[in-house]
# Entry
Amino acid sequence: MSTTLLPDHETAEVLDRTIVARPSLRDTIDQSLAMAWRALKKMRRNPEQWFDVTLQPLLFTAMFAYIFGGAISGSVEDYLPIVITGILAQTALTACMATGIQLREDMDKGVFDRFKSLPIARIAPLVGPALADLIRYGTAATLTILTGVLMGYRPGGGVPGVLAGWVLTVVAGWSLAWIFTYFGTRARSAQAVQGISMMVMFPLTFLSNAFVPAETLPSWLEAFVNVNPVSLVISALRDLMNEGAVTANVGWALLGCGIVVAIFLPLAVRSYKKKV
Amino acid sequence: MTRLPDTDLAVAAAGLVKTFGEHRAVDQVDLEVRRGEVFGVLGPNGAGKTTTLKMLATLLPMDGGEARIFGVDVRREPHMIRQLVGVTGQYASVDENLTGFENLWLFGRLQGLSSARSRATASDLLERFGLTEARDKQIKAFSGGMRRRLDLAASLISQPPLIFLDEPTTGLDPRTRGQMWDTIRELIRGGSTVLLTTQYLDEADQLAGRIAVIDRGRKVAEGTPDELKTSVGSSTLQLRMSEAADTADAASVVRRVLGEEPVLTPEAGGMNAALADANRAADVLIALRQSGLSIASATVQKPTLDEVFMAITGHAAEDETDPQMEVAR
# Structure
């Protein structure tokens, strides 16, 4: 095969058909959207996939607020600004854990053999479900905020602050999902993904400022809590939703999300390719 | 743009090797498939057929050897190969959650067809494969035969010049198998080049113009179905004597009549003999009668894969569990 200056567009002509050496960016986007369509169809036909983003926000918000409210903040109302933002991050994390588990289950199915045999970008089968799951993260965020408002949460940031918080939750969910997508491509079974994900998810959520102020923790734990990306996201959510302020915390949260994507997206694609 | 030299060979593979740990699943296999022909790879479970196909389809990396498909290097240009080959697997690779139509539409979109063209192609294929009624049914509700047909339809969406059929009828009941054969024959009439694997001699005989026999990862024979069958005789006489004690005498009668050594089977008084012509069975039976040797049963059968194997490799086609499947799946 001859080399050209634009290896991305290298083509060959075989039996009167032109074939390309690599999918173009345009093809990659089209293929990812087609895969997202497939993921949406699947979601609609398997309603149990919605439990974690519908029931959990309702249940956890009410449960945590009434149990810890009095103990931590003196009253449920005073605790709501803390716990709502914490639960937002927690449900986003649970929802993106499911992204990884479902990818693993999906990859064991016969249809993935066909995806591998088709001339499609190797990233498309991973990006497709990730795009479709934006809807799940959005649902989880909306329900959590609504439950909070019903319980008496009056966000100081007003509508713009809450909207910004909603967007940040969805962005964070999408970014952190790449960690679990990577586990999904590596692990041998869906159970294994679930096991690993739980071990990652619980420390990330509970060793954060989600439910208790970090200052109340022993200093070594506080140090970890302060660099935990989930804490970064939660601090940013509090600034946006409760204060209506775009602070440095928001920058840190976005940077943290960006770093997670920059590390885990290429890892996931590489490990998926290897499985091929 | 590179214009590849026109080649008569759809597949040119030399010295293919695949190892799984200590096990050499494919060991120095050469394959040449000409354009427009149907080439069968015949062998028992675990012989390395599927592994060979998966390497050629870029689904498994090659551990050794070289392969070109229409002149394109399989190892170096996997994305190009995927545009030239349609793969139909042993296990129907279609989406359980989607309907028949949605499956075909999705595969069309993934291969760059516009939404409208995808829809038209999907409808055409459903009709061609007799799946119109199942158009809006989820695959979960499909029978095994319907799944296979849909799977085959899915691999034809981009009208690939080369089609791989991996054991297209394994596990299907005889009636569905017949339907699948008809579908494949129609495909062949359309002028496609087909590389198919099978465990069944009659399937290779029905569909393929040339056959390679694979055993324990190695190619042990190659030729037209007729050539292969001639090597084992056109049919087999299976005899069982009433008295096990008569076995040796009966064997010598068979040898005298047919001029060939019968193969003794494990049952008491049992033996198989290759027949160049099925009518020779009568000669054997008359000779046995004249010698006063009594038979318990006699059957004339077409040669099976077992006999081809016995003749070519000197051992039976063992149905060993397939180590490649755990790794390759």
In short: The interface with chain B takes residues 1-2, 10-15, 17-23, 27, 30-31, 34-35, 37-38, 41-42, 45-46, 109-120, 124, 276 of chain A (CB under 8 Å). The two ends of chain A are 24 Å apart (CA to CA). Residues 24-275 of chain A form one domain.
